[in-house]
Inverse folding.
């Protein structure tokens, strides 16, 4: 099966390589990461490490880095004599890791899953343990770790319903890959159950909670709010409707909702943060067609443009969403009124906000149930329901504020998973 996998991988690489080459040359995307991902340019970083035990932690992008940060801190707290190597797959994840993760000895990019590349990088890094955050399964990499005597385990593991279905279709292949893992720490019972049905031996699986609670509770600091307030020139008592991580088909709903909102509350401003920032020009055009010509973008603000009375702020850069949520009076979290599985609702909850989202929250069922148990999370059926429930919440601001406070408290109260994952890593390190 690995031979077949490598044949398919090689053929796919030939087909898509020209596309990515064009993107790298003309758009600059992946320019910083492509050489490291092919196994080059990181030797100096790796060679600077001491001769301590080495733990390689991999977090794909921003979401996984959020979970990795408290695990790294907990691990380093009890082991000053280890070197932690933190890798990411995306450049935005790498930037976030470098800015926020402390106790890391080296930051690198994760290699593409070509056999000759992963073998070279693993032999350079020479980790004692490799730790993947969430579910990042690369067959050649894991097989090479096994052949090189590197222990591999999963932390903060999650299997979404969509991913579960795909894994089941090729379960005969993944069962062998899972055998390369010595342990899997999963977020919730449902994730553990899905891992078992795919082929992971039950004795290797433990339910240990979500490390993102640890990270977000610590990150929701007044200084972050002050920073974003200053940059957006926020006035005293200014109110914002924040729509985060929106997908195609949701911006139209947000526009109609905002129109109804300002018909009753003219002072409200809108901050919209698309899930994919490359869609920003099309979203800006959509707002202008609907009469909202007073738009300011974050790129404009970053280039010294001062925001004044513009009703719409379009966030067209990466890494601002968590801070933006701190400004919200009300929040809509996207990927949920369209069938995309939802987005991370914990970020807004950490700031004490009531969050509205659609019925498609399959990837965040645990978080949804937890927040709804204290009234902080609210499911809406459609655009009309979203408008009605937002207006209902605004009629009783004291109650809405209290519901948000309960959400913030429950996020803080679920801390502790990071320490459990660190303890699990330590047990295998010893």
């Amino acid at each position: 099966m690995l031979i077949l996998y490598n044949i398919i991988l090689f053929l796919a690489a030939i087909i898509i390589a020209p596309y990515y080459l064009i993107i790298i040359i003309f758009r600059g995307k992946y320019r910083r990461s492509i050489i490291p991902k092919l196994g080059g340019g990181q030797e100096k970083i790796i060679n600077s490490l001491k001769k301590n035990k080495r733990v390689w932690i991999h977090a794909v992008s921003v979401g996984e880095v959020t979970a990795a940060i408290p695990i790294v801190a907990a691990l380093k707290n009890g082991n000053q004599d280890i070197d932690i190597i933190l890798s990411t797959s995306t450049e935005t994840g790498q930037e976030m890791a470098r800015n926020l993760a402390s106790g890391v000895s080296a930051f690198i990019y994760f290699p593409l899953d070509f056999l000759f590349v992963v073998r070279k990088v693993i032999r350079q890094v020479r980790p004692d343990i490799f730790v993947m955050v969430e579910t990042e399964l690369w067959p050649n990499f894991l097989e090479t770790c096994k052949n090189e005597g590197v222990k591999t385990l999963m932390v903060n593991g999650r299997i979404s319903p969509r991913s579960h279905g795909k894994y089941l279709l090729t379960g005969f292949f993944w069962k062998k890959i899972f055998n390369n893992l010595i342990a899997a720490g999963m977020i919730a019972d449902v994730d553990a159950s899905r891992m078992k049905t795919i082929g992971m031996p039950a004795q290797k699986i433990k339910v240990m909670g979500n490390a993102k609670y640890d990270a977000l509770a610590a990150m929701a600091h007044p200084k972050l709010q002050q920073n974003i307030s200053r940059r957006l020139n926020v006035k005293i008592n200014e109110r914002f409707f924040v729509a985060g991580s929106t997908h195609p088909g949701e911006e139209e709903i947000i526009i109609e909702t905002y129109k109804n909102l300002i018909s009753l509350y003219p002072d409200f401003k809108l901050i919209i943060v698309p899930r994919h920032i490359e869609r920003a020009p099309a979203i800006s055009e959509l707002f202008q067609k609907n009469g909202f010509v007073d738009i300011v973008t974050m790129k404009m603000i970053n280039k010294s443009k001062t925001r004044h009375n513009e009703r719409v702020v379009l966030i067209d850069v990466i890494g601002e969403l968590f801070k933006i949520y701190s400004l919200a009076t009300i929040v809509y979290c996207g990927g949920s009124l369209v069938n995309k599985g939802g987005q991370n609702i914990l970020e807004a909850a950490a700031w004490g906000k009531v969050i509205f989202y659609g019925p498609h929250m399959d990837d965040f069922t645990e978080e949804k149930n937890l927040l709804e148990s204290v009234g902080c999370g609210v499911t809406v059926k459609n655009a009309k329901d979203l408008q009605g429930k937002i207006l209902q919440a605004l009629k009783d601001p004291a109650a809405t504020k209290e519901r948000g406070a309960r959400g913030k408290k429950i996020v803080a109260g679920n801390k502790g998973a990071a320490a459990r994952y660190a303890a699990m890593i330590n047990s295998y390190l010893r």
